């Protein structure tokens, strides 16, 4: 009998993902779920799903879940963590959810140094609603509400969430990673693990921004999307660690 | 227990803690500030949690989180802040979570004023959130009643897994009266097996959610919710009927205004005019039956409100066209005077032959 060389993490349910072909949400879900399993906290974890493409994340993570209103996941997570301080609490949010309608909530969850972890998936567009311009859409990038390409004169420049949050003391771990190739996926997992370890040690708020693709709404193939992320997003959204708990000491 | 003199807002906070409230999330807004201030002082002493949120929107979403995690939770605000909370309230109702929301209401619309008003009747009974949802709306007319209703509100919320709304006008929040913290009738409540406290790898995940993309599933959910709301309408109506025997005119008013109406009834009595009062204690479900039982002696109904006329819509529905329905109201933070109500009653009776 053959011995299995690979098994799906128990941090995910058996529900089939609804994500489009080539979308990197699936990879990011798996990384989060593997980290929960490796840290042995799946049974103690309460996750909060956003509104956006990952709205159904509550069906995929094999832990207790809340589905939040658009942008409010950090507030919902605050309510959970304050009454269940011994549980591990995370939010999983996209760029429309976190960087537009939920800007106040993400800033203040960091300000209060809530002991939660946020996985912030940035694909520079509103995916679920059909490809509208996001606060993270690049200058010149076409979207259904920026059909001539995003104009800096009309809409300003894309919001760099990590750089903004890194100015807040309560955000003790802030890192931007990408999943456009295998070495970066491995680095992304390490950052996600650290972001949960920070919470387990009770050190404060931790956020990992994961640069992600949207082949469907970018209108290019999955393979081209990975290249587009590398060529266009990395120069504007530099990867790296912006804050670690050690730095604050 | 002996009576203590307390400000309404603080008494509401104390009642919540006595009822086992373990989390409070709020935001400053006049005239309810003494509630979050009291909770910031007292919650930790009883092993509870207090967070001053960045907005009313965040506060109600914290309530959503804590309620889903299975603890007794409350928020309070005043009219413009309650408007902001509507998003969270519909999610809480949709996800069937228990919580208590206190509105110490002030003048409107918009930023309005900070004085007492009953301009939030619509938002309390119809809600401002999207979709088919309902919640019980309790309207205390004294600080003692506020304490009693807030205490019971947590049981009602847990019993139905539904938000309970307490509408206390600014007068109830700001004045001081003697109150007694007494044991209220408690209900048999099921364990919160649906709450998110971690699966411990020994059960399926609990999911707190109001999304149902399949229309058939959502309709089924709406029908289930509606059955629950029908149970509330059947079981939870509260009303005070006062001085109704032989009444020529029936006043109807709630909250502080009902007390002014009672003063007017005394003045009318002295002039030989018999007036009764229907005081809804639950604004939703509305006490329709009390209006069916109005005696044949009554010639008209006078609705008195600290608004331009909101409850009068429900009065007209409950009256079912039997009697003429009149209105007297003050708004913007102005309170009805007993004599003005007396004058209005005489005007109505003068016109009724």
Structural overview:
Chain A is of the alpha/beta class. Chain A has one domain (25-248): Rossmann fold, CATH 3.40.50. Helices cover 37% and strands 16% of the residues of chain A. Chain A has 10 helices and 7 strands. Chain A has helices spanning 25-38, 73-83, 95-101, 103-111, 152-155, 161-165, 182-200, 215-218, 222-236, 245-248; strands at residues 45-49, 64-67, 88-94, 117-122, 171-178, 205-211, 240-243. A 7-stranded mixed β-sheet of chain A has the order 2-1-3-4-6-5-7, sandwiched between helices. In chain A, helix 7 links the parallel strand 5 and strand 6 (205-211). In chain A, helix 1 packs across helix 7, helix 2 packs parallel to helix 4 (103-111) and helix 3 (95-101) packs across helix 4. The longest helix of chain A has 19 residues, at 182-200. Chain A starts with 24 loop residues before the first helix and ends with a helix. The mean pLDDT of chain A is 97. Chain B has 353 residues and is of the alpha/beta class. Chain B folds into 2 domains: 4-235, Rossmann fold (3-Layer(aba) Sandwich), CATH 3.40.50.970; 240-351, Rossmann fold, CATH 3.40.50.920. In chain B, 40% of the residues lie in helices and 19% in strands. Chain B has 12 helices and 15 strands. Chain B has helices spanning 8-18, 34-42, 56-68, 79-94, 121-125, 143-160, 170-174, 215-235, 256-270, 288-292, 311-319, 338-351, and strands spanning 4-7, 23-26, 49-52, 73-77, 99-105, 136-138, 163-169, 176-179, 207-208, 239-242, 249-252, 275-280, 282-284, 300-305, 325-329. A 7-stranded mixed β-sheet of chain B has the order 3-2-4-5-7-6-13, sandwiched between helices. Chain B has a 5-stranded mixed β-sheet with strand order 10-12-11-14-15, sandwiched between helices. In chain B, helix 1 packs across helix 2 (34-42) and helix 1 packs parallel to helix 6 (143-160). Chain B is globular, with a radius of gyration of 21 Å. Chains A and B meet through strand 1, strand 2, helix 2 and helix 4 of A and helix 3, helix 4 and strand 9 of B. Strand 2 (64-67) of chain A pairs parallel with strand 9 (207-208) of chain B, so a sheet runs across the interface.
């Amino acid at each position: 009998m053959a011995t299995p060389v690979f098994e799906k993490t128990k941090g995910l349910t058996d529900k089939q993902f609804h994500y489009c072909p080539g979308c990197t949400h699936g990879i990011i879900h798996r990384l989060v779920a593997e980290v929960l399993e490796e840290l042995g906290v799946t049974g103690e974890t309460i996750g909060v799903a956003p509104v956006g493409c990952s709205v159904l994340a509550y069906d995929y993570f094999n832990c207790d879940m809340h589905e939040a209103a658009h942008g409010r996941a950090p507030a919902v997570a605050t309510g959970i963590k304050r009454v269940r301080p011994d549980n591990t609490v995370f939010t999983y949010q996209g760029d429309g959810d976190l960087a537009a309608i939920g800007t106040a909530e993400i800033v203040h969850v960091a300000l209060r140094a809530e002991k939660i972890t946020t996985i912030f998936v940035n694909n520079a567009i509103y995916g679920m609603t059909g490809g509208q311009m996001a606060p993270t859409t690049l200058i010149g990038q076409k979207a259904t509400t920026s059909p001539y390409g995003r104009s800096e004169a009309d809409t300003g420049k894309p919001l760099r969430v990590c750089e903004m949050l890194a100015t807040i003391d309560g955000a003790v771990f802030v890192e931007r990673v990408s999943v456009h190739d295998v070495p970066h996926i491995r680095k992304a997992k390490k950052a996600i693990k650290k972001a949960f370890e920070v919470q387990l040690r009770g050190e404060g708020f931790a956020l990992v921004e994961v640069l992600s693709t949207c082949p469907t709404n970018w209108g290019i193939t999955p393979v081209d999307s990975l290249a587009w992320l590398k060529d266009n997003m990395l120069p504007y959204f530099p990867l790296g660690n912006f804050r670690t708990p050690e730095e604050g000491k | 227990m002996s009576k203590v003199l307390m400000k309404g807002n603080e008494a509401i906070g104390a009642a919540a803690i006595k009822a086992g409230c373990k989390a409070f999330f709020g935001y400053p807004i006049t005239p309810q500030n003494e509630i979050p201030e009291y909770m910031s002082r007292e919650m930790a002493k009883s092993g509870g949690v207090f967070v001053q949120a960045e907005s009313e929107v965040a506060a109600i979403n914290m309530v959503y989180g804590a309620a889903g995690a299975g603890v007794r939770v409350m928020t309070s605000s005043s009219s413009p802040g309650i408007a902001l909370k509507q998003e969270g309230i519909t999610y809480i109702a949709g996800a069937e979570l228990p919580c208590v929301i206190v509105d110490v209401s002030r003048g409107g619309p918009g930023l309005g004023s900070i004085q007492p008003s009953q301009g939030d009747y619509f938002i309390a009974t119809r809600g401002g959130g999207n979709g088919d949802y309902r919640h019980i709306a309790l309207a205390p007319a004294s600080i003692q009643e506020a304490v009693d209703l807030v205490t019971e509100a947590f049981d009602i919320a847990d019993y139905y897994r539904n938000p309970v709304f307490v509408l206390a006008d600014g007068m109830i929040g700001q004045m001081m009266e003697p109150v007694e913290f007494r044991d209220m009738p408690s209900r048999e409540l099921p364990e919160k097996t649906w709450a998110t406290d971690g699966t411990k790898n020994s059960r399926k995940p609990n999911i707190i959610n109001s999304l149902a993309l399949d229309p058939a599933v959502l309709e089924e959910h709406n029908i289930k919710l509606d059955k629950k709301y029908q149970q509330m309408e059947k079981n939870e109506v509260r009303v005070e009927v006062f001085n109704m025997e032989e009444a020529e005119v029936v006043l109807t008013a709630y909250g502080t205004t009902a007390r002014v109406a009672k003063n007017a009834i005394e003045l009318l009595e002295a002039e030989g005019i018999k007036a009764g009062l229907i005081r809804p204690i639950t604004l939703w479900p509305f006490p329709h039956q009390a209006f069916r039982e109005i005696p044949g002696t009554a010639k008209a109904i006078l609705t008195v409100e600290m608004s331009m006329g909101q409850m009068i819509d429900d009065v007209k529905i409950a009256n079912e066209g039997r009697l003429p329905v009149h209105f007297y109201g003050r708004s913007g933070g102005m309170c009805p005077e007993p004599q003005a109500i007396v004058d209005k009653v005489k005007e109505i009776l003068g016109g009724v032959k």
